[in-house]
Design goal:
The chain is of the alpha/beta class. It has a single domain, classed as Rossmann fold, CATH 3.40.50.1470. It contains 6 helices and 7 strands, in the order E-H-E-E-E-H-E-E-H-E-H-H-H. The protein has a 7-stranded mixed beta sheet, sandwiched between helices. Strand 2 and strand 3 form a beta hairpin. Helix 1 crosses helix 5. It is globular.
């Protein structure tokens, strides 16, 4: 089953642009910029930045909800209903506390792991059975930071972490055409192999 919708998660507004929680936006921005025909534009009906594009002959939508993170499901649910996109045709790109900076992992389904954006998308789609591309940002404890998680995700990564996150995004972008084509076994193997 090919992917018809790639969702990047983040918070709108300049004050959040460089924060760890916006890793999903970073990937989708990079993806849109790499495609000749993908310009993200405000779409009021979906309360999101949206682009229609083609990757490897497959037509799909790129989406960045312009709600706050915990209401991401509003935009995802609206576009999925409008274009009759099934949950297993959705790939959500998000920051992941349980992976170190520099890591990126692909998986289908599973719990939200406390991620409010995923919780809201699961509620909007009525299932956890959609694809996730998890961009590691690390956890304040494993990075030896005495900082609450909510505060950590809403701050900029340190320079060395930022470089690792950017490397993970670059690696993840390389498997997007394979994932969009529906070959998740190959995409997962490529992404998870150092």
């Amino acid at each position: 089953m090919p992917i018809r919708l790639i969702v990047g998660l983040g918070n709108p507004g300049a004050e959040y642009e460089q924060t760890r929680h916006n890793a999903g936006f970073w990937l989708v921005d990079n993806l849109a910029n790499s495609l000749p025909n993908a310009r993200l534009q405000r779409e009021a009906g979906f309360n999101a930045m949206v682009a229609k594009t083609i990757i490897g002959g497959n037509q799909l939508w790129l989406l960045e909800p312009q709600t706050y993170m915990n209401r991401s499901g509003q935009s995802v649910g609206a576009i999925a209903r409008f274009y009759k996109i099934q949950p297993d045709e959705v790939l959500v790109v998000h920051d992941e506390l349980d992976l170190p900076p520099g890591a990126a992992k692909l998986k289908k389904g599973g719990s939200s792991g406390g991620h409010n954006g995923l919780k809201d998308i699961t509620s909007a789609l009525g299932t956890q059975d959609y694809w996730r591309l998890r961009i590691g940002i690390g956890h304040p404890r494993t990075l030896n930071l005495n900082q609450p998680v909510a505060d950590f995700v809403l701050h900029r990564p340190r320079r060395e972490e930022q470089l690792l996150i950017e490397e993970a995004i670059e690696k993840a972008l390389r498997i997007i055409p394979t994932a969009v084509a529906g070959d998740f076994a190959k995409a997962t193997m490529e992404l998870h192999t150092p």
